[in-house]
Amino acid sequence: MDDPVTVESGETYERTAITEWFDKFADPEEIVCPRSGQKLKSRILSTNVALKATIDEWKERNEAARIKVARAALSLASTENMVLEAIDDLRNVCKNKPSNKVQVRSIGMIPLLTNFLDYRSRNVRYVTVELLRQLAEDDEEGKYGGILMLITVKYRQSLDAFASEKADQILRNLERVAITSSSWQKMAIGNHC
């Protein structure tokens, strides 16, 4: 449940679910509460603030726990599947809530992740590069470090042509964006002084 709302009868539902329920009735006078069967005079939905706060707090704790579990799994790295699942979970946690990127970076995951750039599996190397790229997004300091990592991966072509090619693609995309970005222009000027 993401958006709990209470209807006139006092029952609480997910907003999208109760809205779909209301839409099933052609005549607004016929709408009844699905749980109590009480006829509803109003379609007004009131946010259940207490339940929403509890859900949000639980999600936050759950995401923090998932990050810690992924870190432990990557530290053990006993199987390729374990590594892929941990990195995939980190990618999802960071995609769903950008503030989780800060948490992942702050607990020292980047040095741990860079170890997987030399992993024997091409899939692991690929998802690692993608996660590092994702972690560098929206972080001014991280962009420069991420770019340096991508450059390093790009020039390791003799070790891994696939990862080198992916790093090159990401750098080319960054280059296209950089032409119009003033922060990149500042960085380029600073490096030529």
TrEMBL record:
Pathway: Protein modification; protein ubiquitination. It is an enzyme of class 2 (transferase). Keywords: Transferase. GO terms for biological process: protein ubiquitination. SUPFAM superfamilies: ARM repeat (SSF48371), RING/U-box (SSF57850). SMART domains: Ubox (SM00504). It catalyses: S-ubiquitinyl-[E2 ubiquitin-conjugating enzyme]-L-cysteine + [acceptor protein]-L-lysine = [E2 ubiquitin-conjugating enzyme]-L-cysteine + N(6)-ubiquitinyl-[acceptor protein]-L-lysine. InterPro entries: ARM-like (IPR011989), ARM-type_fold (IPR016024), U-box_domain_protein (IPR052608), Ubox_domain (IPR003613), Znf_RING/FYVE/PHD (IPR013083). It comes from the Eukaryota. Its EC number is 2.3.2.27. GO terms for molecular function: ubiquitin protein ligase activity. Residues 1-65 form the U-box domain. PANTHER family: RING-TYPE E3 UBIQUITIN TRANSFERASE (PTHR45958), U-BOX DOMAIN-CONTAINING PROTEIN 42-RELATED (PTHR45958:SF4). This is RING-type E3 ubiquitin transferase. It comes from Sesamum radiatum (Black benniseed).
